[in-house]
Task: inverse folding
């Protein structure tokens, strides 16, 4: 089982009430910090013996059949603009396999029936160098709650779809681009034309 999959398993199944840190693996498995850090960066495998040691230490049962990929809905004709805005072209969707390591966070967010995820396309250059045109963006659908400052969201404004960083203050939402050629924009936080669709939690990029 790979490092990222093990962490995701522990988090997704609520086996522990916290995400294990590298120091935990050092202590339990008797490994050096450098060794564990290298494993995390390379996403290498835990042996069966190591997994059994973790189970014994935490008194848990860790499933072995967690797949390295997850299937998500992909909307090939839906574009999130990283520029001046783009209309939603259609609702056509297909299922694609997404590697867990394509998620932006080191530990893959919960893929459960309680959360909805989909994949859309990016257009424009305003979020470079983080997001490039034609990147496929993994969206965790927004279910209310608070906007997390400086995270990247896909949202609708005046019937157009945008992908930007958001910062919320008392009365305004600041819309920020990573590309310094684009200035921040401020809108009223109660503007009914502004609707958050979801947070960008992962990315697929064709390197060919």
Result:
């Amino acid at each position: 089982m790979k490092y990222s999959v093990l962490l995701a398993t522990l988090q997704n199944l609520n086996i522990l009430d916290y995400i294990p840190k590298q120091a935990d693996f050092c202590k339990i498995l008797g490994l050096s910090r450098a060794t564990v850090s290298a494993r995390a960066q390379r996403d290498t495998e835990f042996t069966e013996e190591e997994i059994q040691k973790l189970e014994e230490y935490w008194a848990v049962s860790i499933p072995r059949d967690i797949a390295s990929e997850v299937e998500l809905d992909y909307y090939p004709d839906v574009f999130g603009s990283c520029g001046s805005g783009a209309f939603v072209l259609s609702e056509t969707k297909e299922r694609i396999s997404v590697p867990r390591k394509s998620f932006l966070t080191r530990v893959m967010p919960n893929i459960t029936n309680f959360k909805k995820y989909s994949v859309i396309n990016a257009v424009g250059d305003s979020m470079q160098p983080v997001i490039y045109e034609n990147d496929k963006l993994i969206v965790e659908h927004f279910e209310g709650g608070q906007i997390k400052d400086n995270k990247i969201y896909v949202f609708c404004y005046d019937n157009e779809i945008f992908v930007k960083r958001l910062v919320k203050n008392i009365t305004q939402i600041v819309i920020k681009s990573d590309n310094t050629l684009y200035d921040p924009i401020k809108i009223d936080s109660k503007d009914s034309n502004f609707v958050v669709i979801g947070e960008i939690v992962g990315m697929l990029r064709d390197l060919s």
